Amino acid sequence: MMKKLLLLCVLLSFSAYAIAFNFTDSKGKAQNLSAYSGKWVLVNFWAPWCPRCKMEFKDLNDLDAIPNFVVIGVAMDYGIDSTSITNIVDRYNIRFPTVIGGGRRDLDSPALQVGPVDYYPTSYLYDPSGKLVMFIPGIISKQKIKDFIQ
Question: Of the four, 37, 44, 101, 140, which is 20 to 30 A from 23 by CA?
């Protein structure tokens, strides 16, 4: 009960951040929340130096393979050389769209369109109507997300 109350408080406090994001992925394709109307959308912020982030790539690929579910990865805090992102994407066979996002504290950071990213990984889940329904600090649980969307 206490965890549910805490999650509700966190969601309410971040609701001011939840806007329709507009990203461009590493392949030049626009990634907009409105384009995924009718689908669950998980925006996952990660960094190439983060070992916990790498642990969840397989589960993120699995979630992205679910019909009516989309994962958008936002790679952050990679320094001046974004090739580290493409190396990670290739090494871990990341199949979901990846946004090369710069630094989380940059004035144009993608995080400003979604919500605070205090550490990695951090994820935000939107329901099929585009409403923010879950903030996930830390590693995602594929099974908990699957249960939630059922």
Answer: 140
Q: What is the mean pLDDT of the chain?
A: 87
Question: Can you tell me the distance from the alpha carbon of 140 to that of 112, in angstroms, rounded to the nearest whole number?
Answer: 21
The predicted model scores a pTM of: 0.85
Per CATH, the homologous superfamily of domain 23-149 is Glutaredoxin (3.40.30.10)
For residue 137, CA distances in Å to 85, 99, 125, 140 come to 21, 19, 11, 8
Distance between CA atoms of residues 26 and 143, nearest Å:
28
Q: Are 23 and 30 in contact (CB under 8 A)?
A: yes
The model's pLDDT over 32-53, given as tens digits with 9 standing for 90+, comes to: 999 999 999 999 999 999 999 9
